[in-house]
Amino acid sequence: MGKRILAVDDSASIRQVERLVLGGAGYDVVEAVDGRDALARLASAAPALILTDLNMPNLNGLDLIRSVRANPAFRFTPIVMVTTESNDEKKQAAKAAGATGWIVKPFTPDQLLAVVKKVIG
Amino acid sequence: MTRAETFASTFREEAAELLAEMETGLLELESHPDDLDCVDRVFRAMHTVKGSGAMFGFDDVSRFTHGMETAFDKVRGGELAVTPTLIGLALRGKDLVRAMLAGTADPEAVARLSAELLALTTASAPIVRAPPRAARLFRVRFRPAVDLFRDGSNPLPLLAELRDLGDARVTAITTALPPLEEMDPESCYFGWDVVLETERGAEAIRDVFIFVEDQCELRIEEIADVAQARLGEILVERGDVRPEDVAAALASQQRIGALLTGTGVVCRDLVESAAAEQKVVRQVREAAAEVETNTSIRVSAARLDSLVDLVGELVIAQARLSQTAGRIDNPDLVSIAEEMERLAGELRDNALDLRMIPIGSTFSRFKRLVRDLATSLGKEIDLVTDGAETELDKTVMEHLGDPLVHVIRNSCDHGIEGPAERAAAGKAPRGTVRLAAYQSGSSVVIEISDDGAGLDPNAIRAKAVERGLLAPDATPSDRDLFQLIFKPGFSTAKVVSNVSGRGVGMDVVKRAIDGLRGAVEVESVRGVGMTIRFRLPLTLAIIDGLLVGVGESSYVLPMSVVEECVELTREDVRNAHGNRLAAVRGELVPYLTLRDWYGIDGARPDIEQVVITGVEGNRFGLVVDGVIGQHQTVIKTLGRFYRKVEGLSGATILGDGTVALIVDVPTLVRAATSGQQEAVSC
Asked: Would the pTM count as exceeding 0.80?
């Protein structure tokens, strides 16, 4: 099995796209419906990369990133945030919270793969 | 010829080549308007024509080309866009220059086109164009911050991504690495220098580092000057050492890299990184130099022809030597003869190879042809070519031009339908004519196919009956029916256009290909398109032949048509009851006796040989006294007086000095079978 990716998004259709694209490229995709769900699955999934939306119920993306970074086991795990805004402010905030990179919605399958490849090879 | 005339004729030759190159470039530009290399090529060709023209007294050519050159200079400068109008003007200009060189240009047309060019170049607005796509050399210096790892960033995939952009040489810089006891394993102490050769720009390189650009020191510099490659200079240019340190080091006459590290001016890694850059730069420069030195020399075609003639003579002389050596039976002589045979064979192959030219050189003129035809017919037609590198003997190539033009014209005129008709048939409005060449065994196959209407079997049948080529009640297969289009005077086009359809077409094609010892095949599916296939021998100068004897004479049958040899006894002849048919493994094959055909006296031997030949899918036997063996046949053309003899295509000289005639089997078979039909109908 390829590297495991935890895909966090409250939109089922976005998760489906991510699963199809990344799964098709040989990655093992585990889904989570929001930040809290993602944290609950973190230990068992032990992902090589976390792909997360920013605006989600229960626990939003920024808080998820902070919580993941606070966990010593995942301090260095790459986190790519999926955002609808391409403004610098949001990116800076996410970067400050500990995100590795970002991808702007809507994205093409090639763009998603390029970003994932850039971060975990 | 005076010296001036010699110069002028050299210039004409050169100009013809340049014009051809210009045309190829222009047609390429039409499909790739952004190809700056192509613009350069076209410009250079115009520039040379202009410059040389003025030097050799072709002032009109020079003046006119100046206008075209100005236009393309503007294209180079980004001031003028490559538009169909510009290409159309330039193509017409190219034709005019050729006419001027031949002295047949209409001055009025020259003036008119000059004015049009001037109008275009002065009225144009500047344009924005794409950056050039040639490979460029970049120096990338990536020094990540110590806390790079803290947000999950990993520099290694980034280096891998750089490698995806092009040829990358990576040197790790470890100067910041602290002693083990002071090292924090969660910090990044490494840096990397990369020399990257890529077709992409600096922006693409910067994009690689997009997620980490705030967490690193990143310098991307283009190495523009590949001529400069001294280590010291590279280090100075990179800002790693001061020029005075280099000067001091050079003064002590040691290897500069070792010296600079030794004195602590610069660390080892940085010198290594600079050395890597030096190596890449050197390779780039050498590759460029190789292109320049890897040139060819020009030899006139006549010299090549006489070389091949001489090689032919040598092969004949060598055959005599071998025969004589065999007779004298002296071991020393035999070994020399064998060595000669080997060398002569190699020399022959090499000499024939010199005459081989890639067929692509003729393809370009067809691009122009199709373009012009499509415009005048009001159709949209693309010409797709394939196998341009396929090589063919020069003589074959020369005789191939007209038949190809004919077939391509036919495809454009009759084959491809108009856009409306195509749309109605559910096809793309643009038609495609495909010209492909490939080698298949000892022959070269050239295919001209189109996705047009295909042949209409009913129209062909009606026409053939009308012309008396087919009995009204005959039911030939489609394949046989299609062969009728090669009959003289056959054309099914309803309207005679100025492109084709005068009924002098396919029979000329057929004859030309026959003359090259080739064959023509047709395939067609109504509504889908048709394919015409030429099958041509690789060379005309020397062929593999089967040497046969009839009485005192010898004949050569081209091996390409020979299928097998069988015996024919008196009894066989008697059993056939006067029918000239031989039973070959249950199949009856008609034959003719060469002895009778050529009127050779003497008694027939008891057992004769039938050489079964295959021509256009039909088997036909030629009866001879005996089969002597395979023979490398150097073809000599027959003299003027014998040109009209049907059924002979040339002669060759045998090892013992006697002459053997080369039988033109297809013509002979055709003559023999048509004679038979007449005999039957009488």
From this structure: no
